[in-house]
Design goal:
It comes from Lupinus luteus (European yellow lupine). This protein has ten helices and 15 strands. With 370 residues, the chain is of the alpha+beta class. It has three domains: 76 residues, Roll (Ubiquitin-like (UB roll)), CATH 3.10.20.90; 144 residues, 2-Layer Sandwich (Herpes Virus-1); 91 residues, no CATH class.
Length: 370
Amino acid sequence: MNPKSHQILFHSPELRIPLQSVTLSFVSDRTLSHLKHSLFNVSPQFVSSFYFTLNGKPLLDETPLLTTQFAPFSTLLLRSRLFGGGGDGGATGAESRDCYLNMYAEKKPDKVDPNEQRLSKWLNCALSNEPLREPCVIDNLGNIFNKVALVEALIGKKLPKEFGHIKGLKDMINVKLDLIPGVDDGISGAKFQCPIAGLEFNGKYRFFALRNCGHVLSAKASKEVKSSCCLVCHKEFEELDKIVINGNDEEVVVLRERMSKTTKEKKKKKMMIKKVKNGNVDVDDDGVSLEGKRLSGTKHGVDDKAVAKVEGNGRVGLKGVSDVAAKRFKATDIAPANATKDVYASIFTSSRKSDFKETYSCRSLPLGRN
């Protein structure tokens, strides 16, 4: 061996290159890049994907072969670069914070098909979500139910809060749905229709139920055939008897206000009937309470014994006075002694307008207004 040269060894398990030796001369200016090109007769881009390591440390391609770190018989290892994950500057995806956060982000619920949601609302029971089947009922807000499922929930006290306004059978309205001819229970589509217009009961058209007879009609049929009677049974109804089925938010608000108003009126009427039965309230022939309207006591010169009392049938009567006279009763009839009837009547009626007519010119005359 030339004393001015020495040998180094190299190999590559990845490329299946066995251990080989290279003789280095001290006058040579070759680098590791020249050594790689001598091993591969391919494009420079392919050669750049490999690098040498010495004792586990990577070496630059510009490192000269005649360097003090290459001792005689040093062993170099030729390895391939791992782009995109080898810590060599390639993109790994971990640099993006969004990729890390998306791993723990909550998954958004899948979008619900609006058509499926509409069909489910119109074809199924609002409580049990089972297909509608006779007998069916609706509540005062237009929700439609299978009557059996609703009654069972009431008995078991398992009604959700959204249906808390349903207290019993009085809050249910039996409805009569017209079945489409030839439709079986196994079909998943619409099973009912408008008996007049033939429109399917599937949510594409507005439907309402009549409170007094229970028939379900489409709004289109009611618009085309305007009538104050049911188009099926010809029973008369009022506009307030219409209950929109599965209405929008605005229609539900109107129905809720109507329901609240009706409930208050029923409670008030029930309390009034209870007071009348107990004899605590006087009523007139129309059932209107006279409490707070009747004059009594010595202040107005009215004898309490002569005041009307509630009889057993709830009518008002005066002792010794016929029914006709009781209806024509006036305050002046019981005026105090030595009192002028006109003056006494003015306490309960508005004063008469004076015959004097005020003009612009007479406003300066204080006596004229008196």
